TrEMBL record:
GO BP annotation list: methylation
UniProt source species: Saccharopolyspora gregorii
Pfam families, per database record: Methyltransf_19
UniProt entry tagged with the keyword 4Fe-4S: no
Keywords: Methyltransferase, Transferase
One GO molecular-function entry: methyltransferase activity
Name used for this protein in its record: SAM-dependent methyltransferase
Length: 264
């Protein structure tokens, strides 16, 4: 049987339909380890929507959403188009089901495309025909790496690939990242989260790695964090209205850091 994939189990956490039996079985085990995993996924997704809304309202009209996953409620282009119907969006993911489903969703949506590519190969994603056709890399771009970088272990140096994307973009570009953490998280959620993360060793994404706040901040080196700086996903600009808005009794239970930065 095919191993669960991060894209499809996340779809299961969010109540989506693009997952296989192996993914649903993984989700059932994940809920035993981290009972509020579905909330963690929803807080993360809410951060993504708030980040895109923020960037679009600040005038960003082109987006590169890397590790975009399976289509779900409130995709990047849908949020961006609420503010600017002409915004262009390129999605990228290395998971085949995610790419096929995204292609299906986008087939009648002008100004959007999906690229199958690996975050660790920036030149392939930045140089893909769809990217070159839709994004003008001489103008500010909103880059999203939401719930992506924790799938890349330290020995694969995600910060090096990220620098390549950051370097390729002009001043005024934005970068939104969320990332799993147990930094500052109290027991029992801390141990539950580590146990949950460990279970990914039996998936197609075995390198799942929690990072602390210092490591998270390093991803933004040289860029200016927008208010409120580094927050948990559940509390990043939680005043922004959102269809799927829901409060966290304890923001740290979101176990993911979130931030958006601007290239000076
Ligand atoms: C948890 S999902 C996040 C989806 C979406 N960004 C969100 O936050 O709602 C993580 C996604 O990252 C993708 N991914 C993991 N490693 C990747 C890599 N090296 N290159 C591209 N995509 C990757 C997975 O396939 C999956 O779709």
């Amino acid at each position: 049987m095919e191993l669960p994939s991060a894209a499809r189990v996340y779809d299961a956490y969010l109540g989506g339909a693009h997952n296989f039996a192996a993914d649903r079985a993984f989700f059932a085990r994940a809920k035993e380890k981290l009972p509020h995993i579905a909330d963690v996924a929803r807080w993360n997704r809410t951060f993504l929507r708030r980040a895109v809304q923020t960037m679009a309202e600040e005038g960003i009209d082109q987006f590169l959403d890397i590790g975009s996953g399976l289509p779900t409620a409130g995709n990047t282009h849908e949020i961006a188009h609420r503010t600017n119907p002409d915004a262009r969006v390129v999605y990228a993911d290395n998971e085949p089901v995610a790419v096929v489903q995204t292609e299906e969703l986008l087939k009648d949506v002008p100004g959007t495309a999906v690229v199958r590519g690996d975050f660790l190969e920036p030149d392939a994603i930045l140089g893909a025909a769809a990217t070159r056709e839709l994004l003008d890399l001489t103008k500010p771009v909103g880059v999203l790496a939401v719930a992506l970088l924790h799938f890349i272990p330290r020995e694969q140096h995600p910060e090096a690939a990220l620098e390549r994307y950051k370097d390729a973009l002009p001043a005024g570009s934005r970068l939104a990242i969320s990332h799993a953490t147990v930094d500052g998280v109290a027991e029992p959620v801390r141990s539950q989260t580590l146990d949950f993360i460990d279970s990914y060793k039996d998936t197609q994404n075995p390198g799942f790695t929690a990072r602390d706040e210092l490591e998270f901040r390093r991803f933004f080196t040289g860029w200016e964090l927008l208010d409120p700086g580094v927050a948990f996903t559940s509390e990043w600009r939680s005043d922004l209205t959102d269809v799927d808005d829901f409060a966290a009794a304890n923001p740290k239970n979101a176990v993911c850091f979130a931030a958006v930065a601007r290239k000076p």
